[in-house]
Write a structure and sequence with these properties.
By secondary structure, the protein is an all-beta fold. It contains 1 helix and 24 strands. It has 3 domains: 53 residues, no CATH class; 193 residues, no CATH class; 32 residues, no CATH class.
Length: 288
């Protein structure tokens, strides 16, 4: 058995793969040794590349800086007939940050990273600097023309300073349709362009690349998050983990009714993640 690069004019398939078995006619696209060509889904372990798989063409790779404003401490709340200082509340001020125009006319796949961490919905981008402080979260979303970050906030007994955060935004384009020429391999020696699968692939386009240490982007095969002790642990693109909730974040209760000057706010155990989860296999990638 060996590796093969083959086309099938009957199906329009093009593939590069290891032969799963050594039986069958090497020139027959439907032979057992060429099974990955016309049945790629059942032979993923043998594939290096196939025209039917999305090769994730990179439309843009940009860094956008957002100047997030300061967050005030929590507002007062009512306890019986008395107004007391609230330990924690949610700020209802939602902010939508426009971080790019892709103009594709459909909602594309987008990856966004902060530093060496790829963000997920509700990602904590600014942690408290003191016990029971405020925090800032973002969730990415796309429209048919734009990429946005929606910011929402929680507020504690202490506020949060304004901060400028750089977001790396990677936008991907869908694979184009076959051009109808019937040319499964087309090489232009003048331009150096190689087109495969009736123009569905071209070496002149930018595609996501699999590389060792391709942070900050990584595609996790298994879970990307674990929950323990009321907090969460995230998988980084390089296989390490990140605990957004700091150990200084603690539960707090009023000693007494919380209505008198002699009452005190007593802090309990840390609310930080205290589990031992590690992520599974991660495919490390980077933009070309």
């Amino acid at each position: 058995m060996g590796w093969a690069f083959m086309t099938d004019p009957a199906t329009g398939n093009v593939g590069l793969y290891d032969e799963p078995v050594g039986t069958g006619d090497p020139a027959d696209p439907d032979s057992a040794r060429n099974a990955p060509l016309n049945n790629p889904a059942a032979n993923l372990a043998h594939l290096y590349w196939h025209i039917l798989l999305d090769t994730m063409e990179v439309v843009s790779d940009t860094v956008v800086s957002i100047n997030h404003s300061a967050i005030d401490a929590a507002a007062g709340s009512l306890a019986g007939d008395n107004v007391v200082a609230s330990d924690f509340d949610a700020n209802g001020n939602l902010l939508d940050w426009d971080i790019g125009t892709h103009g594709l006319g459909y909602e594309p796949l987008v990856l966004i990273a902060v530093g060496q961490a790829m963000i997920t919905p509700g990602y904590l981008v600014q942690v408290p600097g003191s016990v029971n402080g405020s925090a800032r979260y973002v969730s990415p979303y796309v429209t048919v023309n734009k990429v946005f970050l929606r910011e929402f906030q929680s507020r504690g007994a202490t506020g949060l300073a304004g901060v400028a955060i750089d977001y790396r935004v990677l936008v991907f384009k869908r694979q184009p349709a076959a051009d109808g020429t019937g040319q499964l391999i087309d090489w232009n020696p003048t331009t150096g362009e190689l087109r495969l699968g009736e123009g569905r692939f071209s070496n002149k386009r930018r595609y996501l690349q699999v590389v060792p240490g391709g942070t900050p982007f990584g595609l996790v095969y298994g879970r990307t998050i674990d929950l323990k002790n009321g907090a969460y642990r995230l998988a980084r693109a390089d296989g390490s983990t990140y605990d957004p909730v700091p150990a200084t974040t603690k539960t707090g209760v009023w000693f007494g009714s919380g209505q008198f000057a002699t009452d005190t706010l007593t802090y309990g155990n840390s609310m930080a993640y205290d589990g031992a989860w590690t992520p599974g296999e991660i495919l490390e990638v980077q933009a070309p």
